[in-house]
Design goal:
The radius of gyration is 18 Å and the shape is globular. The protein is about 50% helix and about 15% strand. It has helices at about 5, 25-35, 45-55, 70-85, 105-135, 155-175, 195-210, 210-220, 230-240, and strands spanning about 15-20, 40-45, 60-65, 90, 140-145, 185-190, 255. The chain has 9 helices and 7 strands, in the order H-E-H-E-H-E-H-E-H-E-H-E-H-H-H-E. Pfam families: adh_short_C2 (PF13561). Keywords: Oxidoreductase. GO terms for molecular function: oxidoreductase activity. Belongs to the short-chain dehydrogenases/reductases (SDR) family.
Length: about 260
């Protein structure tokens, strides 16, 4: 098999994507569907799940709070029933968390951020890994971290703490699961165009007492390419990391960010 053949999409992959009724997760789901994969998604937004799955053949989904281990167990079982097994887990679900100085943060918001961004990944991994070992010969796990998983992020400490933790989780699992031929990599998106990033910029601008426009310009000045990345950029990297072309790539934290220099 030559290099070009390695890059061809793998039809028939069985893929589970968390937090995928909109945003980055939905973009990744669409990319896999276009490559001929079978895809199961979950999300906390039931109406978004219904709307998304209704318009795509080969797409299955259910409502779930990823912070609830019992609901996660149900997602894994429904995935097994719908797809007959699992080849790829994309642990994408996450929230932005609160913005504010450390002494002002609400402990409940801190706990919610940790539960949604970090604990949920453990809940899925503990149930998905046995399925990957049992039913897949091309198993791969993709963890969605963030550029805030390699850089400090003032006033966004709960978010940054979870995203750094996910890099450690990824590198440790790559060692643990390598002998089972399961590859584990993390993607670190930078400033991604869209409504979610607009909300983050607005919240940080308010915390710093500046305008939205000034805050947005400040973000762009910190990026070597002076532009945001797109959801398609993240989806393309996910497809690559789960393709034969990435067969010897594991334990890596790969930034897709235009080179964010600092936050």
């Amino acid at each position: 098999m030559n290099a070009f053949e390695l890059l061809k999409p793998q039809p028939g992959l069985r893929v589970l994507i968390t937090g995928a009724a909109s945003g980055i997760g939905a973009g990744i789901a669409q990319a896999f569907l276009q490559a001929g994969a079978q895809v199961f998604i979950c999300d906390v937004d039931g109406s978004a799940i219904d709307e998304f799955t209704a318009g795509h053949v080969g797409l299955h989904g259910c409502v779930a709070d990823v912070g609830d281990p019992h609901q996660v167990d149900e997602v894994i079982e429904r995935t097994r029933q719908a797809l007959g097994g699992l080849d790829v887990l994309v642990n994408n679900a996450g929230i932005s968390g609160p913005t504010g100085s450390i002494e002002e943060l609400d402990p409940a918001q801190w706990e919610r951020t940790v539960t949604t961004n970090l604990n949920s990944q453990f809940y899925f991994l503990r149930r998905a890994v046995p399925l990957l070992k049992e039913t897949s010969e091309r198993a791969s796990i993709v963890t969605m971290s963030s550029v805030a998983g390699r850089l400090g992020y003032a006033f966004r400490t709960p978010y940054a703490a979870t995203k750094w933790a996910l890099v450690g989780l990824t590198k440790s699992l790559a060692i643990e699961l390598g002998p089972s031929n399961i590859r584990v990599n993390a993607i670190l998106p930078g400033v991604v165009q869209g409504e979610r990033m607009d909300r983050v910029i607005a919240a940080r601008a308010a915390a710093l007492g500046i305008t939205f426009e000034a805050m947005r310009d400040d973000y762009l000045r910190k990026i070597s390419l002076r532009r945001m990345v797109t959801i398609d950029d993240i989806a393309a990297m996910t497809l690559f990391l789960t393709s034969p072309a990435a067969g010897n790539i594991t334990g890596q934290a790969i930034s897709v960010d235009g080179n964010v220099e600092y936050l």
